[in-house]
Design brief:
- The structure is a single chain.
- This protein is of the alpha+beta class.
- The protein has one domain.
- The chain contains two helices and two strands.
- The protein has a two-stranded antiparallel ribbon with strand order 1-2.
- α1 runs antiparallel to α2.
- The longest helix has 26 residues.
């Protein structure tokens, strides 16, 4: 591969990895609304964080960052 084609592929990989990271993060976080247990008490909202989806998002961000660093290093 030529240098320019490699750079385009790596930038495309970085963009796709960021999109995957956002998608994984959104899938990994869910909220639940709970009614008050006692009359006059406030309602409660619980947030559930799924560790595997958040880890996937973190890995995708890492891949995107490494791809950007690779392009930056090669162009310098």
């Amino acid at each position: 591969m030529t240098g320019r084609v490699r750079d385009v592929v790596m930038v495309t990989l970085a963009v796709v990895a960021v999109v995957v990271a956002v998608w994984c993060w959104n899938v990994g976080v869910s909220t639940s609304e709970f009614e008050p247990m006692v009359e006059g008490a406030p309602a409660f909202t619980g947030t559930h964080w799924s560790g595997s989806w958040i880890a996937g998002a973190s890995a995708a961000v890492l891949v995107a960052g490494l791809a950007v660093l690779d392009v930056w290093r090669r162009r310098r």
